[in-house]
Amino acid sequence: MTELSSCPPPGESALRKTPGKMRRNSVCSSTRCAQNASIWRSSCTAGGRWSNPFVKRLGARHTFGLCAADAEPLEFSVPYIYYQPEVFRYLEVVALAGGRAAGREPRMSVTEEDLTAACAVLPPGKTIAVLHLGASDPRRRWPAASFAAVGDALGDAGAVVVVNATGDERPQLGELAEKMRHPFIDLGPDSTLSLLTGVLAQAALIVANDSGPLHLARAVGTASVGIYWCGNLINGGPTSRTRHRPLLSWRLACPECGANTIEQRCEHTASFVADIPPEDAIGQALDLLAAARRPAAAGLPRPSMQQPQQSLHPAMAILPVPSVRADYYAGRSSFTVA
Question: Could you give the angle at the alpha carbon of 192 between the alpha carbons of 132 and 244, nearest 5°?
Fold first, then answer.
């Protein structure tokens, strides 16, 4: 169960944005679980202010979840403190019911359809590097000129650069094209989630703002250079550094009016991450590119796309397990109950 909350400055982490369809489907799937097994686990990004009373009315034998200072507590609760990695936050809730973590990073399978779509646009036998220019909150967007500098460095190193930009990100693509020396492959204004997933699965790395495609790349095992505002890194950043290199902006004051966005949110949308130097991203991207080309690395498998079987508390073992497809990252989701 998830709920809406006000955006933390300077904008929510991409992982915290929860589309309405996902909310509806998660309620339906979890309600069936509660009715079938008389047990409930609640995960609430906003601390349970609205969802906890609903959960308690279901009449489940046990209730688990998050609890903010102004929320009604469940039988077993984890205090909701905003700055915490979201994955660890939910795993902490699961642990209340005896669940054990299968890993620290989300993993997602790649389908044959995804790979077929990617093969139609990618040149065979080439090293692919992806740039993603957008983010739902403009304050999390790195300048197109900075992406262009990284793209040219990757092109100079022999990589084929692929750019993902849809919707209101297209003007940035035009600016990128003006500033980049190297040609690049444009996935188009109507790129599908399947195409993007397939491309990311075959790429050596992605350089991207804190956004859905960045988290999707990590989930399919692709190395990444992520552009983060400092607060969002705490909640939505990677937990390892061998293959994931976050770059941080420590800016707290609005570039236009100087308001401290930790204390208040202003109406401006100027970038809070523009101060991150392109040279920092270039260094990290070239390092990841070199690592992908090393003979020793070529024979190593990517991180497993399948989660190992978890050992659960006996009470949890009788529950059907909901699984989420990557459509979450495109602003929609499909839930299936196995």
Answer: 35
CA distances from 1 to 18, 29, 87, 338 (A): 10, 10, 15, 18
What CATH architecture is 112-298? 3-Layer(aba) Sandwich (3.40)
Name the segment(s) of the chain with CATH classification 3.40.50.2000.
112-298
Is 19's pLDDT higher than 90? no
Dump pLDDT digits (tens) for 43-82. Answer: 455 789 888 998 898 888 899 899 999 999 999 999 999 9
3-state DSSP assignment of residue 225:
strand
- d(CA 194, CA 62) in angstroms, rounded, equals 38
Which tokens is 313 given? 């508390």
Furthest-apart CA pair in the chain: how many Å?
63
CA–CA separation, 51 and 44 (whole Å): 7
CB environment 24-36: b (16+ within 10 A), e (fewer): ebbbebbbebbee
Name residue, tokens 């989701």. Answer: 333
Of 58, 50, 96, nearest to 77 by C-alpha is 96
Amino acid 68: pLDDT: 94
Give the mean pLDDT of the chain.
Answer: 80
| Contact assessment for residue 153 and residue 286, using Cβ atoms and an 8 Å cutoff | yes
* Predicted local distance difference test score (pLDDT) of residue 21: 35
In this structure, what token pair is assigned to residue 109? 């399978």
Over residues 221-236, mean pLDDT: 96
Q: What are phi and psi of 324, to 5 degrees?
A: -115, 125
* pTM score: 0.75
